[in-house]
Specification:
The protein is about 35% helix and about 25% strand. The chain has about 140 residues and is an alpha/beta fold. The chain has a five-stranded mixed β-sheet, sandwiched between helices. The protein is globular, with a radius of gyration of 19 Å. The chain starts with about 20 loop residues before the first helix and ends with a helix.
Length: about 140
């Protein structure tokens, strides 16, 4: 059979990108992002949700060092910038304070760290929702 059959034609690449409606930009020109760490099977992940359009983000981390957290946060910021949104403010736990020292100088983003012992409510709820959905997928 070798050499007697032709290769099947691979499927064409389809551009399925959807433009964001201009009405969303008019209603929400600036976005507030809330971030937190979450662990799944002892693997750290940076999670985030914005409180204006409620888009969920997550980025797996190799470790919890400041450069690795900065890399993960940079992927969040790039995604919003690519879509045309501007991050106005980031709410986070106190553990992210060292991460934002250079971000405050380089970017025009307001950083709001929660007090010790407090949590960021939308980020915590986002973590619970994501864990619940991951458990559902695994058990399915």
């Amino acid at each position: 059979m070798k050499g007697k059959k032709t290769r099947k034609q691979p499927g064409a690449v389809i551009d399925d990108a959807i433009e964001t409606p201009k009405e969303i930009f008019e209603l929400h020109p600036e976005v507030k992002l809330e971030i937190d760490l979450m662990f799944i099977n002892k693997l750290p992940m940076l999670t985030g949700i914005d409180t204006t359009i409620f888009h969920r983000n997550y980025e797996p981390l190799r470790c919890q060092t400041v450069p690795e957290l900065r890399r993960a946060l940079d992927t969040f910021l790039r995604a919003y910038n690519k879509a045309g949104f501007r991050i106005e403010r980031i709410d986070c736990d106190n553990q992210f304070k060292p991460l934002f020292e250079d971000l405050i100088d380089n970017e025009d983003i307001t950083i709001n760290c929660a007090n010790p012992g407090d949590h960021v409510p939308h980020a915590e709820r986002n973590n619970r929702t994501m864990k619940e959905r991951i458990r559902t997928i695994l058990h399915g």
